[in-house]
TrEMBL record, chains A, B, C:
This is Peroxiredoxin family protein. It holds the Pfam family DrsE_2. InterPro entries: DsrE2-like, DsrEFH-like. The lineage of its organism: Bacteria, Bacillati, Bacillota, Clostridia, Peptostreptococcales.
């Protein structure tokens, strides 16, 4: 039977998301099945500025939507972000080494057939609508995560 | 043989603890054996304002006890806490969706038979006494965590 | 066949690194094979002030090298660091309990035969040279991490 990896994407940090998507791409290249389950801040990675909506949202949900990152390139660093200056510096250093940005790794993961799950409860609490996130995202509960993780050879909380 | 999950509860963040206890409850509902091993800041999740003591503590231990969160509802968010305003906002959003607070998930885990271990070294260093934490907590070393994790189908560092 | 643990050392925090190295030492004492894969901030744990260099580095790499922690004892806490005061307090509390500092656990792990891998991409982006880190570090890609993790009984993202 094939090998499998399940990543619980909790943190919405640029650097941690980069590490996770680099792993997801590498695992797919090695023919490992990959599931990424997005919860809480992790859901911000899958937002896109073009698909934001404020329809049918409470005031708190609207405010929350405005205050949180709007897609991969809008995420802060987990450390030394310095209001974005630290992150800008890291991006320049990545460019110097011709390392792709997060968006490219997210696109790679989508093309390589990574499975994307969004946590139902997190989406309800944060007021995120399915149409605001990537189209292949399936909405599932924590039970689905546990089931996937039980069947996996690697599970990581990121 | 039954399936098993072991969570290393390191971070004392409200949102991360919520994710962990939601998983613990879901896993128990699926008949998965669950062990939660609390170390460092994670121990603050199991404190209770009524059982705090300053007896036989050094001055540093007393100060540390005062500065750290005093139970589940006193924990900060890992992000956007804004001195508690961000957390209050999240709690209001959870109430709007009738999502239970952390305390309810901790109680659920206790009722469902999750095993609770406390890291001996962390408790000694932080000066936390057994009677300050939940009564079913067993005090164990890192070796016990490794043994439990080796026997588990899922292990996560949270 | 023997048991195996693989730790992905992403965070460069003193408390998280301490937890990881305590686990690595405990696992080796239980005859578990241990691999630690250092990426991003985690690489700072393996720096040493005596082996720093600025040769063949871009200006950003030099700045980055100056702003990031220079070895185990220079790491901040993940919480309550308070510009180092919180960390100093934790160290005093550790001394009161005769708990060794991080450096001792790193040395223990090296003596006990833990395998050390450094993430190639992270080192290139951050401009870290092999000779700035511990000599037994082998430089590997994310594919090596996935391979090691697939063969492990425990995998944790720290």
């Amino acid at each position: 039977m094939g090998k499998k990896m399940t990543l619980l994407m909790f943190s919405g940090d640029y650097d941690k998301a980069l590490a996770a998507f680099i792993m997801a791409n590498a695992a797919r290249e090695m023919d490992v099945e990959v599931t990424m389950f997005f919860a809480f801040w992790g859901l911000c990675i899958l937002r896109s500025p073009e698909h934001m909506t404020t329809e049918n949202k409470t005031n708190f949900e609207k405010m929350f939507g405005m205050m949180t990152p709007k897609g991969p390139e809008d995420l802060p660093l987990s450390k030394m972000n310095f209001s974005g200056i630290g992150k800008q510096m890291l991006l320049e250093m990545m460019d110097d080494d011709e390392a792709p940005h997060l968006t490219a790794f997210v696109e790679g993961a989508r093309k390589k057939g990574v499975k994307f799950y969004g946590c139902k409860l997190s989406m309800e609490v944060m007021g995120l609508k399915k149409e605001e996130l990537i189209p292949e995202l399936e909405i599932e509960t924590a039970h689905t995560f546990i089931q996937e993780a039980l069947e996996s050879d690697i599970q990581l909380f990121i």
